[in-house]
Specification:
By secondary structure, this protein is α/β, with parallel strands linked by helices. It is built from twelve helices and nine strands. The chain has two domains: 200 residues, Alpha-Beta Complex (Spore Coat Polysaccharide Biosynthesis Protein SpsA, Chain A), CATH 3.90.550.10; 78 residues, no CATH class. Helix 2 links the parallel strand 2 and strand 3. Keywords: Transferase.
Length: 296
Amino acid sequence: MINNHPLVSVIVPCYNHENYIKECLLSVINQSYKNIELIVIDDGSSDNSIQIINQLRTDYEFIFEAQANRGISATLNKGIQKYASGKYISILASDDFWHPNKLEKQVAFMEFNKGFAMVCSNSYIVNSQSRVDTFFNEKLFDGLYSFNEIALGKCLIPALTVLIRRDTFDRVGYFDENLLIEDLDMWLRISYSFKIGVLKEKLAYYRKHSTNVSSRSLAMSASRFKILKKWQHLPTNIYTKIERNWELIALNEFWDMYPDEAIKYFNPSFRKLLNSSYRKFAFKYFVRYVLKLNLR
């Protein structure tokens, strides 16, 4: 502990981000909060990411491991279980970066609010040249960060903005390595048992570019329903409300990914069906269509 400032373990999983990894790591190294343990794990990159990371290691000291590709969840779990020794854990994807005061503000919040397991914030959205295009909808950072609000999409937790107490993972478990949306699953597990705080400031920069505008959106929708199955013990009215909300999210993702097909598919009669008592049947029909489309 430096001057009573608790250690923060920052885990950066890297995969083929040679154009962004240096900016990412320097944003951690140059934080105003200095008691940081930086852990970088390359997850089987085939570009020059490893060379760039090793160049940075000649000037800065941090933990680095290169491994065969295992996926984001397994990589995060390794970072937490094998390397992290801090009181707090923070996660940063290798194509994103932080505001210089991100950790300082969040550690201060968590040290003052001992009853919170985690804190998050808003984030800017930048393009491939790191130019700020916009930010996440501020209304999504106004609500109570309860399990229900998170499950219903009434508030947002960008993964690059979180700071989590290390012992929280001992209580709720680690990232599910069988899911594509490992972060949503974790936020639900944490919020079900603990309080989550929010800072409305924009303390990070989320990069939106061609390789991460998710071509996996539909697969991620399927993963969302895997998460839902974990909560079948919830009261029926709450479970059904979440299920319907996630169905609509899936429909919107389909529309965004395949607009031409959607225009043909969502004809007036089908839209009426979605609003009728046959809604569940309509959604199942939609899912079958999407899976067929995805396998082309």
